[in-house]
Structure formats: C-alpha cells, structure tokens
Amino acid sequence: MAELQQLRVQEAVDSMVKSLEKENIRKMQVSSQRPRKGTVKVKGQNGESAQSPEWQNGLMFRCSASCCEDSQASMQQVHQCIERCHAPLAQAQALVTSELEKFQDRLARCTMHCNDKAKDSIDAGSKELQVKRQLESCVTKCVDDHMHLIPTMTKKMKESLSSIGK
Questions:
Q1: Where is this region: Disordered (predicted)?
Q2: 33: burial class by Cβ within 10 Å (0-12, 13-18, 19+)?
Q3: Per-residue pLDDT at 72
C-alpha cells in the first residue's frame, strides 16, 4: 500500500517537473540575456544594418559562444561571462530543487508521524492488523493532503521562474 502511495506522489511530481521544464526552463535557455553591455550588428527588415542589444540574438548558448569570441578577454573574464550566461538557468534549477526538497521533507515528516502513531499503538497493545490498517490510512491521508499542495507549489514556482532573468 505504501508503495502505491509513493508511486502516486512520484508520478505527480514527475509530471510537474516535466511541465516546468518544458514551459519555463527551456524558454530560459532560448531567451537568456548576455550579461555584458554592447550591441551587435543585425540586418533590419529593410536589409540595412542596425544596432541591436545582444540578448535579442537568442540562445543562452550563443551568449556563451559570444563570450569566447572576445579576443581581448582573459581566460577568467571569459569564464565569468559564460557563468553569467548560465546563471538564470542555474538559479531556476536551484529554485525547483529547493521547492522539491521542502515538499519531500514535509511529506516525510507526515509519514514519520504516522509511523510514530503506529508504534505507539503497538506499544499500547493494539493488534497488528488494526495498526497496519491505521498506518495505511494515515499514510494515504498524508499523500492526499500533499497531492493537493502540488498545484499551488507549481503555480508558485512558475511565478518565481518567470521573474528569473528579468
């Protein structure tokens, strides 16, 4: 029974993470801004050259590549530039990891409480089958309660992710 509850939570969390990755984190990789000042020449709609902020050229990886193209920069400056290009993504990953750890900790505390209640019932002389049912019921309630937290947690993370790099 506990395995089934664990699977329910795991599938819901996996789905949430996949959604965040597709809808938010991938977009950060596509639209990452180059953190250094400057402009590049781009062709306008009429074919004329125009100055454009470097971040409009797109990809986080292009940002990193442009760091490497700076022949005047030292190795350390290039490395720092690349780190700045990847900083929003690292911040996003850290945010998701932190929220998932908090969620997991809360769920673990709840199930630990169920285990403590079961142990107390055994110590008080309750029958094993009755305690097992009580434990399963308690764990199921923990999972149900925490499954209801996932949409709010997802919304909060999406809001936080959308503000990263702005």
A1: 26-53
A2: middle
A3: 93
- β-partners of residue 52 are 40
Helix, strand or coil, per DSSP, at residue 39: strand
Per-residue pLDDT at 92 exceeds 50: yes
Q: Cα–Cα distance between 38 and 26 in angstroms, integer? A: 25
**Tokens 């940002």 belong to residue:** 63
Q: Which residue has the tokens 């530039």?
A: 81
Question: In Å, what is the CA distance from 86 to each residue of 16, 91, 93?
Answer: 23, 9, 11
> pTM of this prediction?
0.74
- Residue entry with tokens 């929220």: 99
pLDDT for the residue 108: 96
